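Whether sequence alone determines local backbone shape is best considered at the level of individual chains. When preparing material for the folding task, we compiled for one chain both its residues and its backbone structure tokens. The sequence in question and its structure tokens are set out directly beneath this paragraph.
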Amino acid sequence: MHSPTRTIRSCVLLTLFSTVASAGAASMSGARPQGSGIQLAVTVSADTTAGSCGAATELAVDVGQQVNFCYVLTNTSAATLNYHILGDDVVGPILPDLHYALAPGASYQYNRFVSAASSQSPTTTWTAYGDLPVYTFDDTVDTSFLDITATGTPLDLYDDEAVGVTLDFPFQFYGFPSNQITISNNGGLLFGTEDGYLLSFASPLPDAEVGAAILPYWTNIGEDTGNVYYATVGESPNRQFIVEWDDRDHDGTQGGPSSPSGVTFEVVLYENGNGILFNYQTTGFGDSAFDDGATATVGLNGDATHATQYSYDQAVLHDGLAILFTPTYGTIETASQQVVLNVGAPVADVSPTAITASVAAGASTTVPLTIGNAGDIDLAWHFGQPSSRAHFPVVARSAAALGDPQRKLPGRAPGLAAGSQNRRMPAPFATQALAFGFDESNGVGNGIYVGFDIGAPQSLKTVGPSPSLVDTMAGDFVGNDFSVEYALDTNTDILYTVSTTTAAASPIATVTPPVENYDWTALRWDASTSTAYSVLMGPIRRNPLSPWHSNLYTVDLATGASVLVGPIQNVADPSQNMMIIDIAVSPDGLVYGLDLLTDSLMAIDKTSGAASVIGSIGFDANNAQSMDFDDASGILYLAGCVNDPHLNRCTQSNLYTVDTSSGLATLIAPLGSGAGGAELGGFAIASASGCSSPDAMPWLSFDPSSGTAPAAGSTGLTATLDAGALAPGSYAGTACLFSNDPNQRRLLIPVALDVAVNDTIFANGFEL
């Protein structure tokens, strides 16, 4: 189902090795010539050594184990194959746009490392092209305009805004399949992304900066009249996806007035054949300077060298015009293969699901419990504090950056794409957990404290300015007090409390960095031990370039005093540079970090700083990244900023959930309503875990407090409720069972204890 939000590709691309070759990708729709001039071999193995390639097509692993998908393509045709797509029917596109000249007889190897999450049997397809298709246009076609204003989804786009949409069917554009587009108010679609942005001033085609784009009327369109709609019509396999710009005015030039009237036009994408139709109902803005395409680009853009331009800054459009673009393909070769990955996982349950008992004052009682495991691998469980390395993978993993590590920089980006941040005031907060943070967008510093529902991150509500704060990258709530957030200004090193109702900031202390030219990047509260942790990273001012280092500290929130825990070092490779941009602490006290250099989630030992790779987050991150657990659900959320490799800074901010078994981030929606989203620092979720601390229930204990339940088996333990130090009355709390069950890492067990009066006089009844 299409939706005006975005979905991240679920593949985790970690390393690429080329020897010589070509291979294929998912041919997702459309009639095109097929060839048989390539051979594809896909294997799966547990060997993640760089460049390794297994021989098996079926593999059994435990959940979270790292797996090497190896793809080897051989060109058996007589033609050089220059463009390639690799994908499968589980994760979708893997290499959606690979440019590689694969000569006849040559081979190409690609390795994809993933952390196994669930069993799957993907069929992989590689498609190789001699060259990309050529689009020809016909502007004599007679096509009636299909108005969708009554049935389509209105986008309410403002000036320069762009919104990502998922199509109901995959579409091929310049040979590459995708169901993701960005709809821009400025008269165009960006293909293959839901993170795109289209400038308001058009340029001739081809345009390397625009990327893959479908441009029916690319110009500076305004927001004063009309609306933009989208809809899917028809039945498979003959559906049509339509975007209509209805009565949209021109925004003028150099601050000039908007046009007196609007234009109405649409784009139609055809599922069958991948044709593209531009349909114009009206083309005049009521101003000859803009009418009929006088300041617009009309056409299709593939990349820096592939494009079909209909017009540029020419008044050649007219009412009733229709332009049909049709692709013509040259050499295409495809090959497919299926592999099987069987993933074992534990499934936890506890019986009884609640503990109730009644005892006399000074007495104690026991309740037997059973920890069951309906899964096919051992279940590791514990009550209370786990080992500080309980989240470390059993076998060391690796991750490779999805962008250039030398271009990764902490702190906010120089400026996201301009947009009207927070202009749409949302309704009162909904039922999701509330989150807060500092909007760092557009490179103007902090000062704007915002709140939002984690289920609806597009709607940011301004709490108020905090003029005392300069650059707040770090912050968290302490305990279950959500009236103030503790925020560390990473520019001035001053620790504040910030009111979640007024944004008023009150200084507490200066947290002086113990190492010169290092900056604080994180401040997180561990509720399980009532400890605040922070990360110091540097050297920030690097001249000449030097390695990045990160250290873990505890911080006294009353005085600002910091104590070194240890350097954050990968236990598998202590020499690895480490840029831990933020950390998060799970409800049971496990520390996770995000390494900006490798775009990977790290498990961190809070007693030493030792770290281990969990897995890639799946996107190229840069600049500000901030993450926190929703303690009520145990879900890890990431306010992430996506890097633009052309600009070497992040240009799109989104909210994600992160799988703590694999590291993979899954997109929820953009952060804020601006064109590039809101780059968020000090992201903190205001939710209580629901687990009672051991101090709150000193009368409850478990024997044993940790253990293992075998696959398809169970283990027993005893809960002891001791009223020896309790006065008569009722006592209650919630015990939490933590485990390695990937789908329910925590089970809540309500506990109720009634302590009765110890009546010694009438203990044996009353007799006259």
Q: What stands out?
A: Residues 345-384+705-756 form a domain with the Immunoglobulin-like fold (CATH 2.60.40.10). DSSP finds no helices and 52 strands in the chain.
